[in-house]
């Protein structure tokens, strides 16, 4: 249990990863209405065996509690996928999951 | 620990490190991209003056999105890519996200995005051959998602 729900599955030689992260992803417009600061995830990175396999710079237009999927090659069953996100305020969360 | 062993170990660590730090933070390197209001301006800020070919990039999104707060968008391409960027023309700013494609990475990305109103999603793929490719998909948004 934690911030992210991660599913990683090996199919053939391709690993498919599905992630759901918990974050409000407040846009500037939404934040203004509520009278608080905007805050959203700005960068997500995933790595396996110390090698980056997924890397994205994001904007406020990802949905609330963003879900995303990606695939990559070059990992085996039992390897750990570790995913890190950073938001506008500098909070970071890292969680990992073994590839099934 | 044996000193010689320690030295060689730290050498290995140094050699390995740059590879794991190869990721690019496009927010830091291309700040103008994120404040651009039109798709054309955003592309210009990110890649410069380019003329992408409209082929080889598939953008998948529902034709009618009932909830603009979470629209699943999939970008697929068989092109050997260096970066992939997603833009849309419905929100105040155009850029949605920029992927830095890694070695062994496959261009098959899905993300749920927000759109204020109906509009067009544009995906640009920067190939390792230095060429640019584009794909677009228009969709209707029944209920805008940006005002929450």
Largest interface: A-B, 35 and 42 residues
- The DSSP helix count of chain B reads 3
The end-to-end distance of chain A, rounded to whole angstroms, is 18 Å
Compute the average pLDDT of chain B: 79
Share in β-strands of chain A = over 45%
Explained architecture:
- The complex is a heterodimer of chains A (100) and B (148).
- Chain A is mainly beta and 100 residues long.
- Helix content of chain A is 7%, strand content 54%.
- Chain A has one helix at residues 28-34, and strands at residues 4-11, 14-21, 41-48, 51-58, 67-73, 80-87, 92-98.
- Chain A has a four-stranded antiparallel sheet, with no helix packed on it. In chain A, strands 1-2-5 form a three-stranded antiparallel sheet, with no helix packed on it.
- In chain A, strand 6 (80-87) and strand 7 form a beta hairpin.
- The mean pLDDT of chain A is 87.
- Chain B has 148 residues and is an alpha+beta fold.
- Helix content of chain B is 21%, strand content 37%.
- Chain B has three helices and eight strands; from the N terminus they run H-H-H-E-E-E-E-E-E-E-E.
- Chain B is globular and about 40 Å long.
- Chain A binds chain B through residues 14, 25, 27-30, 33, 42-43, 45, 47, 50-64, 66-74, and chain B through 16, 19-20, 22-27, 34, 69-72, 74, 88, 91-93, 95-100, 102-106, 108-115, 145-148.
